[in-house]
Amino acid sequence: MTHISRFPYLKVLLYLFLTIYGLITLIPFLWALSASFKPLSEIISGEPNFIPQNFTIDNYKQIFFQEPLFGRWLFNSIAIALSVTVLNLLLNSMAGYALARLRFVGKRFWFFLILAVLAVPAQITLIPTFLILKALGWLNSYQGMIVPSMVNATFIFMMRQFFVNFPQELEEAGQLDGLNTWEIFRDIVLPLAKPALAAQAVFVFMGSWNNFILPLVILFDPEMFTLPLGLNTFKGQYISYWNYIMAASMVFTLPALGIYAFFNRYFIQSVTFTGGKG
């Protein structure tokens, strides 16, 4: 019996604390949602009102119908984020399975190299990434945004930990049925790895969707901008159009909320898969 079950008032305090914390984190989002329906003059007036005094949908009309590149920015973000997510799910899973199950020369070396990569901040790799993409002629391109992000050492390690604890009996049963390694991975292992894949999908999509630094470094044509970079164009030297920024931010938030809601059931199941034997 836990301490919380023995002392009911602790449970009440816990829920009270979580409710207050939830409200604190929700308030900025509610303010941004409210500001997206306000004219600029009301936003910069400084009045802390959550209900718009001059309710308007002109901000959304402006970004969708008057801003010619907003649709292109939205398309770029969706195409890049989905491509990066699908490639990560496939390649990270394959690498994790190889490190967990297959025997090959240099296996321990590659595993420790991946662990070493985890200690390297992403900002340090920006200049080498830029120089490599420049040499390949991939600056200001979709492949320049997708290829450097199509694998991730963190999620290779995460998938390796999941597959280390995967029941070997299922794979042995597949071998008895005449399946080769690829067929076992494709038909048996991957379908049962949904919790791990769902957690990976949420984190990878969110990371790619919110990525600002990499597009800032390698994209220079406004038509190739992603949404985080495109939103920055609403900020000027002398005036920032916060009404348009808030409206665009709400549109920017919806896909992230959607993918989390879709994978939430599997995401909750995945909280224990990172442990296990090494």
TrEMBL record:
Membrane spanning stretches: 12-33, 73-97, 109-133, 196-220, 240-263
Start and end of every ABC transmembrane type-1 domain? 74-263
- Provide the topology term for how it sits in the membrane: Multi-pass membrane protein
Question: Which Gene3D superfamilies does the record associate with it?
Answer: MetI-like
Keywords associated with the record: Cell membrane, Membrane, Transmembrane, Transmembrane helix, Transport
Instruction: Answer yes or no on keyword Ribonucleoprotein.
Output: no
Protein's cellular compartments: Cell membrane
Q: What is this protein called?
A: Carbohydrate ABC transporter permease
Source organism (scientific name): Anabaena lutea FACHB-196
